[in-house]
Amino acid sequence: MPRGAEALDLPEWNRASGQSSGTRRRNAMAHLDSEVKEECLREDLKFYFMNPCEKYRARHQIPWKLGLQILKIVMVTTQLIRFGLSNQLVVAFKEENTVAFKYLFLKGYSGIDEDNYSCSVYTQEDAYESIFYAINQYHRLKDISLGTLGYGENEENRIGLRVCKQHYKKGTMFLSNETLNIDSDIETDCIYLDLQALSKDAEDWKNASFFRLEFYRLLQVEISFHLKGIDLQTILSRELPDCYAFQNTITFDNKAHSGKIKIYFDSDANIEECKDLNISGSVQKNTQYVLVFDAFVILICLASLILCTRSIVLALSLRKRFLNFFLEKYKRRVCNADQWEFINGWYVLVIISDLMTIIGSILKMEIKVKNLTNYDLCSILLGTSTLLVWVGVIRYLGYFQKYNVLILTMQASLPKVLRFCACAGMIYLGYTFCGWIVLGPYHNKFVALNTVSECLFSLVNGDDMFATFAQIQQKSVLVWLFSCLYLYSFIGLFTYMILSLFIALITDSYDTIKKYQQNGFPETDLQEFLKECSSQEENQRVSSDFLSCVCCLRRKGSDDHLILTN
Asked: At 270, is the secondary structure helix, strand, or coil?
């Protein structure tokens, strides 16, 4: 080959050699960058799944959420106890007034209700006397009542009581020849008796044509009136008193026309804002202290809500990084179980608890200053939030292997238990409907679907068996034989078979968890990926330290928040 040709080929060879070396350097840098990203991801994942103590030892991160949860448990429980004591006074005042009203307005009330009604009458004379007795007692209320009661205004801003009667429009009945001629249309007639009318001679309004009752077509008589009262016992607890409006209704029910008129008494108590309160002493100052305490609880729950929400958001970002890396390197998707590992259910539980506590605390503050009166909703919110707060404590016990058996067993057995309950529930519903339709007329515990379900649930747990059998009426031999077959088959099926299988499912999950704790849990893709981090730390300490340094140098500023993922 001529020397000129060799001279011409030399620069080309140098350029090709330079390009190949540049490609190798770029490939080396790309490989190094990939290893850096992988190592950084492992470090972030490892840090995310640490418990608060390990995080503090690793990066000296103060466990703010743990401290807030401990403080929140103390504060929320204290708040709930104080509100519970106040709510008990409210409920006790309502119930005691209802009992007092029954003694005041129901003639011959014995103090014990008959089934779901208060008392009953069996003659026309007793019916008239009971109606006139309630009206006279209303007129003499201030002279006979022991409570702080007064007359209240109705919807028409009138003081008095209203008496209404419902009856069939018209009809005639001749029992001698079993003849009945009646119009099924129902008419309602009402009369209003104010205090001025009641102050007159009682015979004037008693002899009115309205009170001439034709019992064979009478359906019911209803007496309704409004009363007002004030609860002074709250002053002893250094709280502002509550003012109440009682809407009372006495119903004489004759719809069955069986010779027995059932008398129902219903009292609906509503808390109203007292118009003019002049109370001296330390009540007002105590109210201010309670409001400050509730505001502090709201601030604590708000801080906990923000921190837990931030952790969930950052966990989702870390999950996205891991999914993209796994798909890029291994060309396959991460299993659903690993994806759900990033969604911390305890944080969701804490967020729900914080929201309920904040809303309940705001309602409690409004109730305290008498702007709202919804005690029931506030108690449900605060009670449920406190339940969730204490359940959340299990999360921190779960960091210890000997204490997390309950959580792991519940997680493992829950899907199987739900499927089993769905199948057993169909049989349970069948027994419920069958017992209600067949035994309802003959057994007090089977008169309604809810009472049937409660009775059967008690039988499953072995409660009240003898009483259920003893109350079976033997008026119909066929029904008695069916009821025995019904109860024996239910107890045998649910107590000895279904309940035993239910317990066996949970026991099987518990045994599985115990074996896993002894022999190790099955490793998923995520756990294998994190396991490589430990092996690399042991075998390649120098390389790992170098990569960690490069990781810190090459980390983007936008990724800094991902270090403190949890």
From this structure: strand
C-alpha distances in angstroms, 35 versus 49, 78, 158, 539, 541?
A: 21, 52, 85, 16, 14
Task: Give the whole-angstrom CA distance, residue 294 versus residue 363.
Answer: 10
440: confidence class by pLDDT, cuts 50, 70, 90: confident
Sign of CA dihedral 33, 36, 40, 46: positive
Please report where in the chains the tokens 């406190």 appear, as a residue. 386
Measured between alpha carbons, how far is 528 from 530 in angstroms, rounded to an integer? Answer: 5
The C-alpha atoms of residue 63 and residue 52 are separated, in whole angstroms, by 6
DSSP 8-state symbol, 153: B
Query: Does residue 2 register a pLDDT over 50?
Result: no
Report pLDDT for 316: 85
Report the number of secondary-structure helices (H) and strands (E) in the chain: 18, 9
Cα(42)–Cα(487) distance, integer angstroms: 61
Burial class (CB in 10 A: 0-12, 13-18, 19+), 145: middle
Is-contact 432 467, C-beta < 8 A? no
Instruction: Tell me the sheet residues that pair with 230.
Output: 243
Asked if 228 and 152 touch (Cβ cutoff 8 Å), the reply is yes
What is the sign, positive or negative, of the torsion defined by CA atoms of 349, 352, 354, 360? negative
CB 161 within 8 A of CB 135: yes
pTM as predicted: 0.70
State how far the Cα of 384 lies from the Cα of 418, in Å rounded to an integer: 23
- What are the residue boundaries of the structural domains of the chain, listed by start? 64-84+284-399, 106-279, 405-521
Of the chain, the end-to-end C-alpha distance in Å amounts to 71
Token digits of residue 240: 């502002």
**Which residues 6+ apart lie within 8 Å of 183 measured at CB?**
168, 169, 170, 171
pLDDT at 447 over 60: yes
* Sole residue written with tokens 């008990």: 88
Which amino acid appears at position 282 of this protein? S
Q: Under DSSP, is residue 312 helix (H, G, I), strand (E, B) or coil?
A: helix
Q: What is residue 355's predicted lDDT score, i.e. its pLDDT? A: 94
Q: How far apart are the C-alpha atoms of 436 and 434, rounded to whole Å? A: 6
Q: Could you tell me if 124 and 118 are in contact, meaning their C-beta atoms sit under 8 angstroms apart?
A: no
3-state secondary structure of 51: coil
Alpha-carbon distance of 166 to 214, in angstroms, equals 11
Tokens of 556: 């983007």
Reported for 147-152, long-range contacts at CB under 8 A and 24+ positions apart, including other chains, are 147/97, 147/100, 147/229, 148/229, 148/230, 148/232, 149/227, 149/228, 149/229, 150/227, 150/228, 150/229, 151/195, 151/226, 151/227, 151/228, 152/225, 152/226, 152/227, 152/228, 152/245, 152/246
pLDDT in the model for residue 360: 92
What is the β-pairing status of strands 171-174 and 179-182?
antiparallel
Output DSSP code: residue 88.
H
The Cα–Cα gap between 40 and 533 comes to 10
